[in-house]
Amino acid sequence: MEKTFLMVKPDGVQRNVIGEIVSRFERKGFQLVGAKLMSIPTELAEQHYGEHKERPFFGELVDFITSGPVFAMVWQGENVISTARQMMGSTNPKDAAAGTIRGDFGLIVGKNIIHGSDSPESAVREIGLFFKNEELVEYNKNI
Ligand code: CMP
């Protein structure tokens, strides 16, 4: 079953939209297989955003994601990686369609409410950075 890593960023946690976001993915039909409210150590933030290391906003990105608690999640389901990204909307909330998470709750690109893996390779890497295998559950297929 395809899995993805999703994370409500510090702005989303502060704005009290964890429940709303979880609810959207539940209602869509995806299954939550892991979740935790946590503060991200700087080293983990730098690893997670490693591909953006050379970007001018890298420092800002790391400062922001470590500025307060995040809600890290693993979800599974058919095409969950691409569908979750559609549900999140464009990276820059100003371009995100109404009805998407960033379109409904975000204003600026640096504070865009949620992160989601952009490919199967990123999903495996990001899930591995944030979760141990034993922190993920399995569902009984017969229920
Ligand atoms: P995310 O999906 O978490 O992955 C990389 C993040 O970089 C992205 O969301 C944005 O929040 C952030 N980002 C992209 N462009 C900029 C920018 N120009 N200034 C600040 N942050 C940015």
Automatic annotation (TrEMBL):
The protein's name: Nucleoside diphosphate kinase
A Pfam family this protein belongs to?
NDK
Q: Which organism is it from?
A: Mesobacillus maritimus
Record: active site:
115
Provide the top EC class.
transferase
Q: How does it assemble?
A: Homotetramer.
Q: Function of this protein?
A: Major role in the synthesis of nucleoside triphosphates other than ATP. The ATP gamma phosphate is transferred to the NDP beta phosphate via a ping-pong mechanism, using a phosphorylated active-site intermediate.
- According to its UniProt record, the EC number is 2.7.4.6
The cellular location(s) given in this protein's UniProt record come to: Cytoplasm
